[in-house]
Design a protein that fits this description.
298 residues; four-stranded antiparallel beta sheet; Alpha-Beta Plaits; alpha+beta; 5 helices; 3 domains
Length: 298
């Protein structure tokens, strides 16, 4: 209470002293007082608030830049939806394709039918089966694998045509290993061969297709695969001599007289086969190279 009284008296004394001043002096005092108040306001209030405002604006600029950067990095939701829809369609297509392929896989129950089809495909060829041994084992991932080892006797031509037929049984059957003995009596003679076939086995279920094959076109094998193309094959001490003395091209099948014997296309003269009979010449082949016989002038 006393402090308030003293302050009040101090203010009255100042006002009395201010009133005692001249007009010009009072203006100067007011200007000085205003300058002091402005200086106090600027340093104590405005300056701090201005710094805080500049700091807030700087932080706001940083935040805006961060938001703009994040917005630019964010994917377009419409494009992502389109990509997701495309991925779903692709997945469904692949799943249906996988189901189709799985439906074509032979199952354990169809193994006897598959073995019968392997034998049936040899019809029409001179192939003698020595043994057929199926064996199942662990394959890739969840699929089992069937390995079939076949031992048979046939000519090279019949064997090649038989393998060509096997491709029509199933796209999953492949020949992993083929071993055959050398053919000593010409490539049309019989030879013992071992063939290892393998295929994946599907799970037993509904929708499995029966083993059905499409007949394959026969192959024309004229070359001995065991004969070198650089060295001629001649029987020891035997020299090939041919005498073409006559050609008849009229009629359904042309004929030729070689070494006083009558031959048609496809017949063999020693180790060579007749592949063409033309007016004035005959073409022979041993599966490696051709030999042309010209009609002898009478």
């Amino acid at each position: 209470m006393r402090a308030n009284i003293k302050t009040y008296e101090w203010i009255k004394a100042i006002l009395r002293q201010f009133d005692s001043l001249k007009k010009n002096q009072r203006i100067l005092v007011l200007l000085l007082l205003a300058a002091i108040l402005f200086n106090v306001y600027y340093n104590l209030i405005y300056k701090n608030q201005s710094q805080a405002l500049r700091s807030a604006k700087s932080e706001q600029s940083v935040v805006n830049n961060s938001l703009a950067r994040l917005k630019s990095q964010m994917p377009d939701m419409n494009k992502e939806k389109d990509r997701l829809a495309l991925s779903k369609r692709t997945f469904n297509t692949l799943r249906e394709r996988l189901r189709t392929l799985e439906s074509e896989l032979p199952t354990q129950e169809s193994v006897p039918q598959l073995l019968g089809e392997l034998v049936r495909q040899a019809a029409g060829y001179s192939i003698d089966f020595i043994s057929i041994r199926p064996k199942t084992g662990k394959g890739r991932q969840e699929y089992s694998e069937l390995v079939i080892e076949m031992k048979l006797s046939s000519s090279y031509t019949d064997l090649a045509n038989y393998l060509n037929r096997l491709e029509s049984i199933s796209r999953f059957i492949r020949a992993d290993n083929i071993v055959m003995e050398n053919m000593k009596d010409g490539f049309r003679s019989n030879v013992d061969s071992t063939i290892a076939l393998s295929t994946l086995l599907g799970e037993p279920g509904i929708g499995k297709k029966e083993v059905v094959s499409v007949p394959a076109e026969p192959l024309a094998i004229e070359r001995n695969p065991f004969a070198s193309i650089f060295r001629p094959i001649l029987e020891a001490g035997k020299k090939e001599e041919y005498s073409l003395s006559g050609i008849i091209t009229t009629g359904a099948q042309p004929t030729a007289i070689i070494n006083n014997e009558v031959y048609r296309i496809g017949d063999r003269v020693d180790s060579r086969a007749i592949i063409k009979i033309l007016p004035g010449m005959v073409v022979l082949s041993d599966g490696r190279d051709n030999k042309i016989l010209y009609l002898e002038k009478q």
